[in-house]
């Protein structure tokens, strides 16, 4: 039996009527990464990603605890294209809960943050309350907050936890599962979720304690400290996101003082690991950035047994060895309900310590799991309730417009489309606005060929941000562009992969040329030239004053673009309204001269706004025709006078002739690149359940390659201004 806050609750039981008889194996276990195989035995699961720690000596009887975890659900109620879907997730969890009970195991079901936010319209239109309600049906016990729980500020988070009425009039009764987060502390005395909170104390309970057959187990909640840069600052002005390892150690000491020796960290902090696929333990990788479970695992108390990760939508299943401390199991189960982490702990009932542990990552796949009929009915009713609004046609598209990054210049079709829509809409308010900026983490989905519905538009732009106009100097625009974090993406490109652009900006009305330079071991963007997309291709000088449009998240310095916050802004309209108006207007226009009206994507390979001068990703800027100094036409020798002018629009751009990969054949082309979270992204990999790869997986150049690179650098490098 498990006790919750001192009250006994029965282990989860599922009515037999809800279960399928003589069912085939319900899970495909995550298979070998390189070929994305899923392997299932006919009558038993083939575990290809299991890890375990060494057994400790047992002093007496043991009790078993199974942790079932998922993360980064993002309100994905009815998305099953890449696995998952909340009906399948719920069915899988209930099957596992029943199986554990039949094997005399105690079960805790937990979510590691980003339950809500960046969600499709079916959930987001109702403030993601339907998702939280369905999590009740899934028998979730404990959740921590992710960065997206703070998208609308701590007041809305409080309402989601304890209930209340939204400003739209939407009522909510709150949730019954525990919300825990130890490192979000109040800057002043306040009341939050029915608790009186003093300054410098967590606004939520920092941990939960469960009694498992007479043994107390502690679960500490943590969110990435990078959250402060991922959400609109005004909504979190009264709280601070503190160091994760310090918070874990503080409350580990408090739990140890209560005699608790089994300690689990439920975190919304990024992590990833390799997956050898041969039965050996995967290696935990060092994720780029300050917030990372690899670093945290080395700092936390030796009594911590398990850390569950999230945020970057990656795969992790590894055992971290630490000198003088117990091993730690670290897992992350991709995102959007596509996977479940199953962690088994054997606890010594005398000492209260974990003596054996193991973990698996299971894949939730439609057709291989039994749908939960209760949740299925909830989804059907919800869709019927919002059907008229979701299915309202607002335009039509001649072709698919993808959010995945489709060029070596770091530009996305949908990112460009959204940036163009915001510039177009802003210019209806002020024709002097010249440039738009859009964070790629705020672009959440594709638009498919055919009718475009309100649901489609909402899925692309679900955050309901205000659009703002602000004036920046040319020097500030350059600073903004150079604040883009390109390191992981650049390293992945060097390794022949697409990578993730979690902190990229998509732009409208502006073209700029850039190259990457290494600073302190990390690749940084350096801007060579900027010019407006006007008739004259007017070059932007540092002293120019230029009116721009950006959403309020960027305007307040979100995603680390602090230069935006150096100037004041004025709210002009809602981003979704702007997007809808643009779709409707462009759907009535022949946008590509083919005589057919309807939306068309911009070919960002042939007509880029972002031009990467290092198409080989070798750190060497290529000298190409369009980079040579322009010759004054009046000064050109006569022999060139009769040469036909080259149409600028027809001139080849660096990398233009690289063959495009078939997007339907590429693994991982999907809805989301980041979040916001560093979430944003990464989604191209997670959508087909491939683990992330990053700089630590890049193989060093060979000696010959280094010599060749040096020669190339010597002969080809030009002086960058």
Describe the structure.
Helix 1 (86-102) packs antiparallel against helix 7 and helix 8 (413-429) packs across helix 13. Helices cover 21% and strands 23% of the residues. The radius of gyration is 26 Å and the shape is globular. The protein is α+β, with helices and mostly antiparallel strands. The longest helix is centred in the middle third of the chain and has 18 residues, at 373-390. The strands form 8 sheets. Strands 3, 4, 5, 6, 7, 8, 11, 22 and 23 form a 9-stranded mixed sheet that branches. Strands 2-1-15-16-18-19-21-20 form an 8-stranded mixed sheet, with helices on one face. Strands 28-25-31-27-32 form a 5-stranded mixed sheet.
**Rg estimate, integer Å:** 26 Å
Distance between the termini: 69 Å
Per DSSP E runs of 2 or more residues, the count of β-strands stands at 33
Structural shape: globular
Number of helical segments? 15
Characteristic terms for this protein:
disordered C terminus; globular; 15 helices; disordered N terminus; 33 strands; alpha+beta; 8-stranded mixed β-sheet; 721 residues; 9-stranded mixed β-sheet
What is the strand and helix layout of this fold?
Elements: E1 2-4, E2 7-9, E3 28-30, E4 38-39, E5 51-52, E6 62-70, H1 86-102, E7 106-111, H2 121-124, H3 129-137, E8 142-143, H4 153-162, E9 164-165, E10 171-172, E11 178-179, E12 184-186, E13 190-192, E14 195-197, E15 207-212, E16 215-223, E17 239-241, H5 244-257, E18 262-268, H6 293-299, E19 304-308, E20 315-320, E21 328-333, E22 339-348, E23 354-363, H7 373-390, E24 393-397, H8 413-429, E25 435-439, E26 450-453, H9 454-460, E27 466-473, H10 474-482, H11 487-494, E28 505-508, E29 510-519, E30 522-532, E31 545-551, H12 552-555, E32 570-574, H13 575-586, E33 610-612, H14 683-686, H15 703-716
Parallel strand pairs: 6-7, 7-8, 8-11, 16-18, 18-19, 19-21, 25-31, 29-33
Antiparallel strand pairs: 1-2, 1-15, 3-4, 3-23, 5-23, 6-22, 9-10, 12-17, 13-14, 15-16, 20-21, 22-23, 24-26, 25-28, 27-31, 27-32, 29-30
């Amino acid at each position: 039996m498990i006790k919750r806050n001192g009250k006994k609750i029965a282990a989860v039981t599922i009515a037999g009527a809800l279960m399928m008889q003589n069912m085939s194996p319900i899970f495909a276990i995550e298979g070998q990464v390189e070929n994305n195989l899923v392997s299932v035995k006919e009558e038993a699961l083939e575990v290809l990603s299991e890890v375990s720690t060494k057994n400790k000596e047992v002093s007496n009887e043991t009790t078993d605890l199974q942790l079932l975890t998922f993360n980064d659900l993002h309100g994905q109620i009815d998305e099953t294209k890449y696995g998952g879907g909340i009906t399948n997730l719920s069915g899988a969890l209930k099957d596992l809960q029943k199986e554990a009970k039949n094997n005399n195991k105690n079960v805790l079901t937990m979510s590691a943050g980003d339950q809500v936010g960046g969600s499709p319209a079916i959930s987001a239109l109702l403030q993601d309350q339907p998702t939280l309600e369905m999590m009740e049906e899934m028998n979730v016990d404990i959740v921590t907050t992710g960065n997206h729980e703070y998208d609308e500020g701590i007041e809305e988070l409080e309402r989601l936890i304890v209930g209340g009425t939204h400003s739209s009039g939407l009522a909510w009764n709150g949730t019954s599962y525990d919300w825990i987060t130890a490192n979000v502390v109040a800057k002043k005395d306040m009341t939050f979720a029915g608790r009186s909170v003093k300054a410098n104390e967590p606004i939520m309970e920092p941990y939960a304690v469960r009694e498992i057959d007479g043994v107390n187990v502690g679960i500490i909640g943590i969110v990435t400290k990078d959250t402060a840069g991922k959400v609109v600052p005004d909504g979190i002005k009264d709280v601070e996101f503190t160091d994760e390892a310090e918070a874990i150690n503080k409350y580990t000491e408090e739990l140890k003082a209560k005699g608790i020796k089994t300690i689990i960290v439920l975190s919304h902090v990024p992590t990833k690991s390799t997956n050898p696929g041969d039965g050996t333990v995967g290696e935990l990788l060092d994720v780029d950035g300050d917030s990372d479970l690899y670093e945290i695992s080395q700092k936390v108390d030796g009594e911590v047994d398990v850390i569950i990760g999230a945020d970057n939508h990656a795969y992790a299943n590894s055992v971290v060895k630490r000198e003088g401390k117990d091993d730690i199991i670290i897992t992350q189960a991709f995102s959007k309900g596509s996977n479940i982490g199953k962690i088994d702990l054997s606890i010594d009932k005398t000492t209260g310590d974990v003596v054996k542990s193991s973990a698996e990552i299971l894949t939730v796949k439609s057709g291989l799991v039994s749908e939960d009929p209760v949740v299925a009915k909830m989804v059907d009713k919800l869709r019927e309730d919002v059907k008229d609004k979701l299915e309202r046609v607002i335009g039509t598209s001649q072709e698919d417009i993808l959010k995945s990054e489709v060029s070596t210049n770091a530009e996305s079709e949908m990112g460009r489309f959204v940036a163009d829509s915001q510039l177009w809409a802003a210019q209806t308010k002020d024709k002097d606005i010249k440039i738009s900026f859009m964070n790629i983490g705020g672009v959440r989905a594709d638009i498919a060929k055919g009718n475009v519905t309100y649901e489609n538009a909402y899925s692309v732009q679900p955050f309901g941000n205000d659009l703002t106009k602000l004036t920046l100097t040319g020097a500030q625009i350059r600073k903004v562009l150079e604040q883009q974090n390109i390191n992981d993406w650049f390293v992945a490109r060097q390794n022949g992969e697409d990578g993730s652009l979690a902190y990229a900006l998509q732009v409208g009305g502006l073209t700029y040329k850039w190259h990457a330079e290494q600073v302190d071991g990390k690749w940084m963007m350096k801007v060579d030239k900027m010019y407006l997309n006007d008739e004259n291709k007017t070059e932007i000088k540092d002293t120019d004053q230029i009116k721009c449009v950006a959403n309020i998240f960027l305007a307040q310095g979100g995603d680390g673009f602090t230069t935006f916050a150096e100037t004041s802004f004025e709210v002009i309209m809602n981003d979704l309204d702007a997007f809808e108006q643009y779709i409707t207007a462009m759907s009535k226009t022949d946008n590509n001269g083919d005589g057919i009206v309807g939306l068309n994507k911009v070919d960002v390979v042939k007509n880029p706004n972002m031009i990467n001068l290092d198409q080989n990703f070798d750190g060497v800027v290529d000298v190409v025709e369009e980079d040579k100094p322009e010759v004054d036409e009046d000064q050109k020798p006569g022999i060139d006078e009769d040469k036909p002018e080259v149409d600028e629009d027809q001139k080849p751009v660096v990398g233009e002739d690289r063959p495009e990969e078939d997007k339907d054949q590429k693994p991982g082309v999907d809805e989301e690149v980041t979040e916001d979270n560093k979430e944003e992204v990464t989604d191209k990999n997670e959508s087909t359940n491939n683990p992330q790869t990053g700089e630590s997986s890049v193989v060093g150049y060979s000696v010959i390659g280094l010599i060749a690179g040096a020669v190339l650098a010597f002969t080809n490098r030009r002086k960058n201004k």
